[in-house]
Specification:
Length: 411
């Protein structure tokens, strides 16, 4: 009984209406078969008598038998085992009481199909075997000839096997569809999690760069302050200049920290600090690309490194490094160009081109998390990031960052 009632799904009004229509349709079909099937199959009355078949005239008992084997189908999906057993037992007990052709098995067949589609393969096989045994040993109507009885049994058993196989096939199709949907949802969640992880990694990387910039600035302040302390008595002018340098260095460090403070997040543990690299190491990227047999052109002639804050310079190099990595790993490029510029007043700009497969290529999809990281880094610097088809035929990465960073306000 536990298997009969466990795991019953929830149904809406529409589901109940559909099952009611199916039950009513099965009842009507069985009534139609009961009244006209014999007359249509063997229209000659003499032949019907010779074969021991009488013309079927509906009676109260026959209508009751049809109702008992079909109307419970309203509950077929909620209680598949209970409905199947009821319909099959009702059919086996009542069909021998009817005259003429045997009672239609439409009700038990629908119940068997439903059970096979809703339950496991083992349960479907058990139900099919049980129904075949009932069909094989159920008593035939006394007026029905032996030949017709055997044909009817064979036909009903074949229909039972077909119903069980059809129900199991539907069950397997639904399971495969459900598994595909679950895998797609899991893959989508995995992509989202990976994107968030890459973004957080970029944030930690930028925070590490802030640490290095701050440490450098404070070291410079300490050195200048010590020099001013030594010179204050014997060379006041030099001490004054040292103090002015302390003020400028401290002011610059405060501006850089203010611009980058949004990167830090509550709960972040201390990150391992490594020396930061700026655009003065662009030659390393050129060597990296050339080592991958990619022809590289580097243009820094329009880039005034002295007017670019250190944290922006470091960030531009980080974006260029990520772009170079994507070119080597995913683009399949043979040529690449890297260009830095400060020609546009108040902005530092980076443009990276390649002649690889482009954004639409399947291989490029693997580098999209890199694009997310570059975009996040540019956004945190209040800049713009874009990736679009390159004149060389591959992808162009274009970044523009304002040199004057506005302090963000948080409510």
């Amino acid at each position: 009984m536990d298997k009969i009632f466990r795991n019953t799904p929830k149904f809406t009004a529409t589901d109940w209406l559909i099952d009611a229509v199916i039950a009513a349709g099965a009842f009507g079909f069985c009534c139609l078969q009961l009244t006209v099937a014999v007359n249509l199959l063997i229209p000659d009355e003499f032949m019907r008598r010779l074969m021991g078949i009488q013309a079927m005239v509906p009676s109260g008992l026959s209508l009751l038998a049809i109702a008992l084997t079909t109307l419970p189908l309203v509950l077929r999906r909620k209680f598949p085992w209970a409905v199947f057993v009821w319909c099959l037992v009702s059919w086996g007990l009542l069909q021998a009481e009817l005259n003429g052709i045997a009672l239609s098995v439409a009700g038990p067949l629908i119940a068997l199909f439903t059970l096979a589609s809703a339950r496991s393969r083992a349960e479907a096989a058990i139900a099919c075997v049980v129904m075949c045994l009932v069909l094989l040993f159920a008593p035939a109507p006394p007026e029905q000839s032996r030949i017709l009885t055997q044909l009817t049994v064979f036909q009903n058993m074949a229909l039972a096997l077909a119903a069980a196989f059809a129900g199991y096939a539907l069950h397997e199709h639904q399971e495969r569809t459900r598994a595909i949907e679950e895998r797609a949802i899991a893959a989508e969640r995995g992509r989202d999690a990976e994107a968030r992880r890459r973004v957080e990694a970029e944030r930690v990387s930028i925070a590490r760069e802030v640490h290095d910039i701050t440490a450098h600035s404070l070291s410079a302040v300490s050195i200048q302050a010590a020099a001013a302390e030594r010179l204050v008595d014997r060379d006041p002018a030099a001490a004054k200049e040292a103090i002015a340098e302390v003020r400028r260095t401290a002011k610059g460090a405060l501006e850089e920290i203010r611009a980058m403070i949004g990167v830090l997040r509550a709960g972040e543990g201390p990150a391992e600090t490594t020396p930061t690299q700026g655009t003065d190491r662009m030659g390393d990227l050129v060597s990296y690309l050339e080592g991958a047999d990619i022809e590289v052109t580097l243009d820094e002639t329009a880039y005034d490194r002295a007017c670019v804050p250190a944290f922006i310079d470091v960030a531009l190099f980080g974006i260029a490094r990520e772009a170079a990595t994507n070119i080597v790993r995913h683009a399949g490029a043979r040529r690449a160009t890297l260009a830095l510029s400060t020609k546009r007043e108040g902005f530092a700009e980076l443009v990276v081109d390649d002649d690889g497969k482009g954004l639409a290529a399947p291989a490029a999809a693997a580098g999209h998390h890199g694009l997310l990281g570059m975009r996040e880094r540019a956004r945190l610097l209040q800049g713009t990031f874009s990736a679009f088809p390159s004149p060389l035929g591959g992808v162009r990465i274009a970044v523009s960052v304002p040199l004057s960073q506005k302090e963000e306000t948080h409510e």
